[in-house]
Amino acid sequence: MEPIPHSLCNSKAGRSAMPPYGSALAMLLSLASLATSCTEQESYSFLQFLAGLSQNGGLTKSWQKGTDCCSWEGISCSPERTVTDVFLASRNLQGFISPLLGNLTGLLRLNLSFNLLSGNLPLELVSSTSIIVLDVSFNQLSGDLPDIPSSTPAWPLQVLNISSNMFTGRFPSTTWKEANSLVVINASNNSFTGLIPTTLCVSTLSFA
Ligand SMILES: *[C@@H]1O[C@H](CO)[C@@H](O)[C@H](O)[C@H]1NC(C)=O
Ligand SMILES: *[C@@H]1O[C@H](CO)[C@@H](O)[C@H](O)[C@H]1NC(C)=O
Ligand SMILES: *[C@@H]1O[C@H](CO)[C@@H](O)[C@H](O)[C@H]1NC(C)=O
Ligand SMILES: *[C@@H]1O[C@H](CO)[C@@H](O)[C@H](O)[C@H]1NC(C)=O
Ligand SMILES: *[C@@H]1O[C@H](CO)[C@@H](O)[C@H](O)[C@H]1NC(C)=O
């Protein structure tokens, strides 16, 4: 079992008005009933993602409905059992990327590079209000890079690697100027029309 961080004990597990002799046991019990696995919503998102794959690189072995998705291959969680990292690079994944991955509210890093994923890059992922690093490079994603709705509240994305795919259309420079956190975009080796620098560093380069 993972060590329980101190802050968790303070914020959630404490029960006042507990007799001293019972408090140690009560503490253990209430810790055990705290998030010990990912949420059903999170599992659901992953199982929908899995359902969209025609080749899943053997993920079904550990991605079993009814089990804790924090223990599934390629998935890491915080000590509070919130999914924070999805690392599924080089797994021969084929199929499309479910927009429901954008519904993982604590997801910080998503790496799907070096697969054979096709279809669009879902708006839900690029406009996620949690993802800071998104790497879908070296796939077969196509279509336009989505415009970001101007209503997107906080856009924490810092690193976007969409290089070596088959994206087309005009790079949506106008809305992407709003990506204030963006440090690096690598959009090279696609089929965008118009001039796009090999690597765009939004803080220093302006879009045409
Ligand atoms: C996405 O997550 C929210 C809760 O965080 C939920 O209400 C909503 O139904 C989810 N969307 C889908 C398509 O499951
Ligand atoms: C994603 O994974 C690939 C393969 O391991 C790695 O080369 C790449 O650096 C990772 N991307 C990020 C943004 O860390
Ligand atoms: C994608 O780009 C990011 C930022 O430059 C980089 O850290 C990452 O390693 C790249 N991914 C791959 C597979 O090269
Ligand atoms: C962008 O990604 C491509 C591979 O898709 C790589 O060859 C290139 O070096 C990357 N550019 C930078 C500046 O990291
Ligand atoms: C460009 O993308 C294709 C398809 O993903 C890949 O096979 C090729 O190695 C990439 N070229 C470079 C220079 O990264």
Automatic annotation (TrEMBL):
Pfam families in the cross-refs: LRR_1, LRRNT_2
Query: Which PANTHER family does the record cross-reference, listed alphabetically?
Result: DNA DAMAGE-REPAIR/TOLERATION PROTEIN DRT100 (PTHR48060), LEUCINE-RICH REPEAT-CONTAINING N-TERMINAL PLANT-TYPE DOMAIN-CONTAINING PROTEIN (PTHR48060:SF19)
Localization annotation:
Cell membrane
Q: Quick one: where is this thing mainly located?
A: membrane
Superkingdom of origin? Eukaryota
Protein's name in the database: Leucine-rich repeat-containing N-terminal plant-type domain-containing protein
- Which regions span the lipid bilayer? none
Please tell me whether the keyword Membrane is annotated for this protein: no
